[in-house]
Amino acid sequence: MNQLTSSNAAPLKGTITVPGDKSISHRSLIMAALSIGESTISGLLEGEDVLGTAAALRELGADIYKDDTGVWHVHGVGIGGLKQPSAPLDMGNSGTGVRLMMGLVATHPIEVTFTGDASLSSRPMKRVTDPLTEFGAEFLGNDEGTLPITVKGAKMPLPITYALPVASAQVKSAVMLAGLNTAGNTTVIEKIPTRDHSERIFNYFGVPIKLEGDNIIVTGHAELTARKMAVPADPSSAAFLMVAALITEGSDITIKNVGINTARTGLFTTLIEMGGDISFENKRQECGEDVADIRVRHSKLSGIIVPKERAPSMIDEYPVLCAAAACASGETVMRGIKELRVKESDRIAVMVKGLKSCGINVTEFPDGMTVKKSIANGTHEIETKLDHRIAMSFLILGLCSDNAITIDDGTVIETSFPGFTNLMNSLGANMGFQT
Length: 435
Hints:
Elements: E1 4-7, E2 13-16, H1 22-33, E3 38-42, H2 48-59, E4 63-66, E5 72-75, E6 89-90, H3 95-105, E7 111-115, H4 126-133, E8 138-140, E9 149-152, E10 161-163, H5 169-180, E11 185-189, H6 197-204, E12 209-212, E13 215-219, E14 228-230, H7 235-247, E15 252-259, H8 266-273, E16 277-286, E17 289-297, E18 305-306, H9 318-326, E19 331-334, H10 347-357, E20 361-365, E21 368-372, E22 381-382, H11 388-397, E23 405-407, H12 420-427, E24 430-433
Parallel strand pairs: 2-15, 3-14, 6-7, 10-11, 18-19, 22-23
Antiparallel strand pairs: 1-23, 1-24, 3-5, 4-5, 7-9, 8-9, 11-13, 12-13, 15-17, 16-17, 19-21, 20-21
Helix pairs in contact: 1-2, 1-3, 1-6, 2-3, 3-5, 4-5, 7-9, 7-11, 9-11
């Protein structure tokens, strides 16, 4: 039995670090694998998603290993140097991993089959395969455009200009990665800004890249320089601890070395607008990314209307925002987030169902929900649909709940936040597996 329970906690106190940023970890491994020479990566997130990307890159020819000090070493093959893998690449539950890797191999003359778990195999891939087809790649699979999918990379890829139909950093990055092994300039037109980790890391590794208004222009066939990378702590992981401290009476915590890229900090802004006592200390820049230490103290939160245009900068944080909203006075309105319906689960539907079972007043809309605190008590047994962010969000809510909250499977958390339960308990939380 993998049920995990969280109950009313003592004040959370301490100074800690959280795992490395997942988005940057994926990209660090990929860019290092395309470089000439040896790159080193410290702070790499060692969750299942990122380890799956490392394993896939090994199959494609890169030499990747971790030393005794926890630093990862990547001996790259250079752009154009990827080899034919001997078996399908299993990307587990990682939507980021599979979409970026599809972009990577689409312009190499190799044939690669991608597979994944049941959740990943239900998620849409056409948003990525459609633009990659314009380079000359072929995609063999089913009519629904879901995994498994076989990619036949273009032998003579042609550069493209592609206007993103929806705001998606994954699609943008897939097209940019495909452009690396394509002669000439590949252009992505992005009307609505999304997280810019790819642009930053391309620049850090020496890719010729220009940002001109809405245009991101990548010049292919450059020789990348091996780099020393330090991955900042993941703001999406830090978000769970921040909300935990805000809603748990008497709490005062500091989270070290957190990435504060403005394309990722929409939740931080939202929590401050709700009345959260959050301060950013020791601001600095490392490896092209902005970082800071974040201090968070318990606060009386009030519901707000979250601006729709903020969604791209906090799309992964809406589940944990629901936990904050459930403990806030008044109503929190979250709209313009239809994208959540095609994540690891239909996060809108799953959160609404779980919150209602906890006695929270929730109204569901096609593109979002409203959440309002209630004094009612529910069953507090949550079905997570094997979604790691849903699982952690309800465990956080359990810290200020009258009754304990139990999730059906706590093992899924390892996907993105290995050691989550132990870290929370070290601060004063009360979480544990059922026996």
